[in-house]
Amino acid sequence: MSWIDTVLMPLKVVVAWIMVRFHDLFVVLGIPGETGLAWALSIVGLVIVMRIVLIPLFVKQIKASRGMQLIAPDLQKIQKKYKGKSDPASREAMSRETMELYRKHGTNPFASCLPILAQSPIFFALFRVLYNMPRLAMDPDEENAYPRDQIGPLTRDLADEFTEATLFGARLSDWFLASDEMSVKIVAAVLIVAMSATTFFTQKQLTQKNMPATALQGPMAQQQKLLLYLLPFIFLVTGVNFPIGVLIYWTTTNLWSMGQQFYVIRRNPTPGSEAERALKERRARKAAAKGIVLEEDKPAPAPEKPRGQRQQPKRKDRAKGATPAGSPTDETGPAPAGDPDAGGGTDRAAGGDKPSGGGAQQGGSGGPKPTAGAKKKRKGKGSSGPTR
């Protein structure tokens, strides 16, 4: 037994156990156990079990792929910022800002690969089980026989039954290059094309219909577009080396992924994507059929006009030192006696104005005017010594 069979033995036992239990179930339901249909449906059951287990990782993959394309413009800014800088400090700063961007948006490149990485061991375990099925069906004394009598619940009798079972004339353990029978080549070719086509549509559904227009540009989008065509081509070339049972497994996995993605994207599309526009149109049609106006379709309320404030009358400024005859005194109160700056050096009384020590003359209704003596007194006020 090779080292890879030794490493994968626990997973091979799990794969064999699931297949045998589904095979027993279909026999109970009336499908003959020796037919290829019962064993093919057992492989489909294996896919269903594995995909149900991987649902949390699948949802994480969709969110991560969506997040990676949404932050592509910000990643380009960081790369442009440190372009041409190869010193350790710049590299460290670039890595730190990139990881901070991933943390802020809750995504990372590794998360988008989780489902593929998680199911890869199962895929290889199934491949080794199907590859070793003819050897397990051999007599133990024959050359190149499988060194063990069983793989988990998969005994030599069940392995012999599986090896002789056919689907459309092709045994499930045969592959395109290892058989000269036309039925094997036709069935294998159809499954290879189906596997490649479902891979293409699964990737297109995830990267095209569920992304906004801004995320469909830039280097990240170009890489996604390259993988969109590269992966189907790889499966088309390598599929000729896969047993028919593995091709059934991979095609069924892609069909499950398409349905799962369709459900998730239809109910929770990326903002600004084609899927979101389709969701809004469906909601609008349903609402229109029921006579309901959605909140997003209601016209925006007209902005309220600002209420005008009554303009207060402006108070006219009075000439300094001039009070109309018969008018009340200023609001600031009467000036202290002897202050030459208040009213031109006059004492105001209720009946009129009297000159204060300066010989001011009454000038009609215009108010008193300061005399020359008052000017001299004002000029001499505040001097340090006595006036001679």
From TrEMBL:
Coiled coil: none annotated. Required for the insertion and/or proper folding and/or complex formation of integral membrane proteins into the membrane. Involved in integration of membrane proteins that insert both dependently and independently of the Sec translocase complex, as well as at least some lipoproteins. Aids folding of multispanning membrane proteins. Residues 39-265 form the Membrane insertase YidC/Oxa/ALB C-terminal domain. PANTHER family: CYTOCHROME C OXIDASE ASSEMBLY PROTEIN COX18, MITOCHONDRIAL, OXA1. The lineage of its organism: Bacteria, Bacillati, Actinomycetota, Actinomycetes, Micrococcales. It is a multi-pass membrane protein. GO terms for biological process: protein insertion into membrane; protein transport. One of its GO terms (cellular component) is plasma membrane. Residues 293-307 have a biased composition (Basic and acidic residues). InterPro entries: YidC/ALB3/OXA1/COX18, YidC/Oxa/ALB_C, YidC_ALB_C. The chain crosses the membrane at residues 7-31, 37-59, 109-131, 182-201, 226-250. Its main location: membrane. Residues 354-367 have a biased composition (Gly residues). One of its GO terms (molecular function) is membrane insertase activity. This is Membrane protein insertase YidC. Residues 270-388 are annotated as: Disordered.
